[in-house]
Fold DoxX family protein.
Amino acid sequence: MERSPAPRRARAPWALATVLIAHGLQKVSNGFGATVEGFAGMGIPFAEAAAAFTIAVELAGGLLLALGAFTAVAGILVAVAMAGALVFAHAGSGVFAADGGWELVGMIGATGLVLAAVGAGRLSVDGLLGRGAARSRTRRPARRSRAATA
């Protein structure tokens, strides 16, 4: 009996959503002004707009990914936010997050792109509504080779 990959596939959006929402809530609890100040201190241009965008992506994007709703849009926005973080805040610090490096934002951004490309799976709002990448990934019965039927 073949098992469906759908439950396993649903874990990636949930894991990413957990990380995003945690970081968004951290920024909110620190205060918007402190977040803007921190962004400006890292040399991020338009720090106020960047902080608002990042908080919105982390909270709203995280919620959408947890539900598997508008996964492609949320995944792309996550990748854009993380690309900005990588370029403006982490690129000069090497790879390792412990040293201020880009590994965490790189993985978050890459995961966002993967989810945008493949969708959240059948056990998601997108999958249940038949939209996005989930629509084109329905399981089909395996085709038998001609040698097997001869």
Confidence is low (pLDDT under 50) at residues 134-138. Residues 11-131 form one domain. The chain is about 65% helix and 0% strand. The chain has one domain: 11-131.
